[in-house]
Specification:
By secondary structure, this protein is of the alpha/beta class. It contains seven helices and nine strands. It has a seven-stranded mixed β-sheet. A two-stranded antiparallel ribbon has the order 3-4. Helix 3 runs parallel beside helix 4.
Length: 244
């Protein structure tokens, strides 16, 4: 079976999700505009900027095509973005190098519209570096960070508790852990035996309480466009945790 995260169609879908303007993603006047710019909002709405020290470090796990990594860099952080998809990492590296990348938006059937993904002008994109990696088996010498950000990653892992067990070592004392998840547990990604028993919210509290204090919870809607008349609207459970 081919890996969907290495297909051009999904790469283009994620480039639109991360970098598309409001008009490019959602031209409908009655659409859920508050669900746009999710990759930016996971940073702006969940990170406590007053706790961020310029020149500090951040880890963006499941960074996809890099928008959240560039937003973290805008806060003055030196960012390492990691994703399992080689095509996503290649795209993020191209965006870091040139600031933009051409892609196509699917409109209807085989009708496509050429677009350009652009890193925001105020982002020091040279402070974001990207590598391919497995969130369940991160390299041992990765180090620890002032901010660890993992958006919509947990429910796409085969064994999410492997990442949760590694998190205390990844976040410095007093540092911030930012998590979002739509709590979409699917057998094609995670065996049912590895799903939370009960709510994802309670499961995270149980798994993280020994090393982290819950500092904030928020509901973050997000919108993924499949074509001009079909969208995925979801609400992610967002949380900010402070390392003890």
């Amino acid at each position: 079976m081919s890996n969907i995260y290495e297909t051009r169609r999904l790469l283009d879908e994620y480039l639109l999700f991360h970098y598309g303007t409001a008009a490019e993603v959602l031209p409908w006047t009655k659409g859920p505009t508050d669900a746009l710019d999710f990759a930016r909002r996971t940073v702006s709405e969940l990170i406590d900027a007053e706790r961020v020290t310029k020149g500090g470090t951040a880890l963006d796990l499941g960074c996809a095509v890099g928008r959240s990594s560039f937003e973290l860099a805008t806060l003055g952080l030196l960012v390492t973005g990691i994703d399992f998809s080689n095509s996503f990492i290649d795209a993020a590296r191209e965006l870091a190098a040139s600031g933009q990348m051409s892609y196509e938006r699917r409109d209807e059937g085989a009708t496509l519209t050429p677009l350009i993904a652009k890193v925001p002008d105020d982002s020091p994109r040279g402070n974001a570096h990207f590598e391919q990696g497995n969130a369940m088996d991160l390299r041992a010498d990765l180090g620890s960070f002032d901010v660890v950000h993992a958006a919509n990653l947990l429910c796409r892992l085969t064994e999410p508790t492997r990442l949760l067990a590694r998190l205390p070592a990844l976040v410095k004392s007093g540092g911030q852990l930012i998590l979002t998840t739509p709590c979409t547990w699917l057998e094609e990604f995670t065996p049912p035996s590895n799903w939370p028993i009960g709510s994802t919210r309670d499961w995270l509290q149980q798994e993280l309480a020994e090393s982290f204090e819950l500092d904030l919870q928020a509901d973050l809607p997000f919108l993924i466009r499949e074509h001009a008349r079909k969208y995925q609207w979801s609400v992610a459970l967002g949380s900010r945790w402070i390392r003890k």
